[in-house]
Amino acid sequence: MKRKGFIILLWVSLGTALFFFLFFTKEKSFHNFLITLLISSMYSFVLGLGNALINEFLNRKFPWSETTGIRAVLSVISIIIGNFILVYFCNYMNYVVIQKTATTEAFFSKEYGTTNWFMINIALLISAFLHAKSFMEELKKTSRKEVVEQKLIAKSANAQFESLKNQLDPHFLFNSLNVLSSLIDENPNQAQKFTASMSKIYRYVLEQKDKELVTVEDEIEFAKTYCDLLKTRFEDSVDFVFDVKKEDYKRYVVPLSLQLLLENCIKHNFATSARPLVIKIFSDNDTLCIENNLQAREQMKESAGIGLANIVQRYALLTKKNVFIEKSEDYFKVKVPILSDKPSNISAKIDTEDGSYEKAKKRVKELKGFYGNLISYCTVIPFLIIVNLLTSPHNLWFYFPMLGWGVGVASHAFQVFGVGESWKERKIREIMEKQKNRR
User: Fold this and answer.
1) Least confident of 9-18, 120-129, 168-177, 330-339
2) Which residues form the 2TM domain (predicted)?
3) Burial class (CB within 10 angstroms; exposed 0-12, middle 13-18, buried 19+) of 6
4) What percent of the chain has pLDDT over 90?
5) What pLDDT is stored for residue 289 in this prediction?
6) Does 382 lie in the same domain as 260?
7) The pTM is what?
8) CATH number for position 189
9) Position 347 confidence tier, pLDDT thresholds 50, 70, 90
């Protein structure tokens, strides 16, 4: 326990001693005050330190944030058993050892049973409050930690995304200038047309490079312009076939993905008039496919690995859908996901589909409800015991609400930590995992 805890216990001991000395001690003397202070300190420190040690041990072995269900069950069991032992110890020291108002046999008889039970309920009230306070502090700490972690992840992902996008400008410009330099010597007129097309394409690159997603329609129009540029250089050696469904035009893809994939087709395959390279762009089951007949170059230039890897990484930052690559002896195909969401809604959709926040919110509500029920029980039952003992000590009716409500608290505990919806969900997941492993 920290220094602050010891100071609080000292003030509680002094305040309790003054209260009992002023209102319940007949002979006001310094000796009696010291005895009252000693008894008060014993109760405060034994119960306070005992519960603090139990709580600290459980915090180390079973943190709230990692094992919430197990920790809650252990907390309930530990505060009941622990306070039962601690209260009996304090009462024994008080009545048998210090004040000597009872013998050992009398202390464990029915005569002191009500007194012991009353003190146990008081101790349970205080202990339940401390454990609930510990839970709320751990919940706040975990929430703050998760918020910080999510911010760091978001910043890291954004920085990574920006880094990936910034690779496109120099890469595209470098390749375009290489094509232009070769055309200047071969065909100056086509080089001039190529320059005009390149300026149009580069304008699109500059417009779209700051966007996470663009419409399929915009990307297709850009791809057609880029294909015209390639046709300027390769003429009949390359053919392009576009067959994208009109209903997919308003959906979204990663910007410049088609340009990079078309560039890969040209770079990794040879094309001649006798054996033209045929590149098909079409949509199929929520994917945009780029397929070419496989005519692999025998001596390929060293690749920087930017194109396809860039697209895969950018999709990984935006969605859980994967980029698929198919290769056979006759063709090479890349499938990129077509997304239905607008760029600003993607992250929100992933969070909604996952449902982690709503599940956590529901779980916290269940735990708060249970601890509220437990604290209410530990508060009301001692009050009923006092009323019963003051009004009709020979008719102990407080047992009925104590037992009835106690069964309700126990049932609530099993529902929240053992046999509730969370238990059903866990069992369903376990069965599904077993079936999955068998397959």
Assistant:
1) 168-177
2) 358-433
3) middle
4) 11
5) 95
6) no
7) 0.44
8) 3.30.565.10
9) very low
Where are the alpha helices (H) located in 209-340, listed in sequence order? Answer: 216-234, 257-268, 307-318
Token pair listed for 182: 């070769």
Number of Cβ atoms within 10 Å of the Cβ of 90: 21
Rg of the Cα atoms in the chain: 38
The answer to whether the beta carbons of residues 415 and 367 sit under 8 Å apart is no
Quote the tokens at residue 370.
């249970």
φ, ψ of residue 299 in degrees (nearest 5): -120, 100
DSSP string covering 41-87, please? HHHHHHHHHHHHHHHHHHHHHS-TTT-HHHHHHHHHHHHHHHHHHHH
Residue 28 lies inside a defined structural domain of this protein: no
Closest C-alpha to 288, from 220, 230, 186, 239: 220
Q: Which three-class secondary structure state does DSSP give residue 166?
A: helix
> What pLDDT does residue 30 have?
83
The span from the CA of 188 to the CA of 439, in Å, is 63
Instruction: Give me the residue label for tokens 């046709």.
Output: 231
Q: Name the residue with tokens 């709320």.
A: 136
Name every residue whose Cβ is closer than 8 Å to that of residue 331 and which is 6 or more positions away in sequence: 291, 292, 293, 294
